[in-house]
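BUG: 3D viewer hangs when loading the predicted structure for this chain

Environment: internal workstation, default settings.
Expected: structure renders.
Actual: progress bar stalls at 90%.

Input used:
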Amino acid sequence: MTMSNSQNPILTVSALNGAVREIIEGNFPLLRVEGELSNFSSPGSGHWYFSLKDARAQVRCAMFRQRNTYTRIQPHNGMQVQVLAQPSLYEGRGEFQLIVEQLLDAGEGDLQARFAALKDKLAAEGLFAPELKRRLPRWPQRVAVVTSANGAALHDIRVTLARRWPMLAVMVYPVLVQGDQAAAQICTALGRIASRQREDVVILARGGGSAEDLWCFNEENVARAIRACTVPVVTGIGHEIDFTIADFAGDLRAATPTAAAAAISPDRAEWLPQVQAQRRQLEQSMQRTLRDATQRLDYLRLRLRHPGERVRDAERRLRLVRGALRQAMQRQQTVWGERLQVLQARRLRQDPRQRLQGLNEMLETRRTALIQAIDKKLASAEAQQQRQVAALHLLDPLAVLQRGFAVLRDGSGEIIYGSESVAVHAQISATLARGTLVCEIVDKSD
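Structure tokens produced before the viewer hung:
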């Protein structure tokens, strides 16, 4: 770039076109544009070139090979399409153009808009959050396959599992995989799997198809049923380029049903060498154990004696013990005989009958003395009792009354000790030795 005398920049054509391209691409995001496809061409480079037009205008479009490889439709002139494209400028000719990222049938484009809206809604709820993804079991024993019973997807899954891990049990939950009833059947199958709790992992699968064919996997109720299922869900829907809402909701997305089967199953070809190596190690360990046991058996065999020798040794020991026992018994018998003689002599010296006679005499003497002591004690007690009775008799009030005395009481029953305690004409009672008199006071003196 150079400067003129008027200070205005002088641009080359390529610089101008480059600057315009940067301005366009910097100010326009990816756009979704609908129109009629025309002037379609596909040169040997593999790129696609065409125009989009409507009743009043048209725009040139380019779709490079690395993008159009994943397009499901076969474009042709006159087709109504939608494109997801970046506005740009082709610098070589200074032509405005669209760099197409995605090419869809117009009807499919409406579905794509619905897909994007539902994806954004569920993502905002956190339904696709990575922390919700469940870990797949490393060694599953039973797998639930939710797919069409007659589709190629089920065949591919069975073949892959039989090749990779044939001991894995496959439980098929047949459902429709396209049409108005498909989403409801898929939700019902996932609910049954969650309630049964018999399988370790779920494969939700379908073969390839158009966006309309795969649309049941973009329904909101299917996405929520996948997250509500208590068993990890692996999706294998369509081809590698197909993405559905179910893929985002699932715990793992596989490109195809075959890839889904491979994702949930161990590879027998990978594990077989390890198992064989462990088998060899086990065989070697068993051989070492057997060899050690054989050596120990040989050692024990050398130490093992014939039973006859053991019997003869036992007989010799028995004879020795028998002789020693006989001698010991004879010695003990002699000792017991001598002790018996000593005891007999002691018995003669201490005859129990003589001792018994002496004890009887001593017992009679002590019995006589005891009787005398008891009689003396009784006589002394009787004399003491008589003295005490006489003393009590002296203290008995009735004995005083029998000598002519009386006990005087006033009207309240209190004993009268002096004349001052009664009044003239008062009635008193006199208790005699025999009976009671009621008297009236006629006169008194102090």
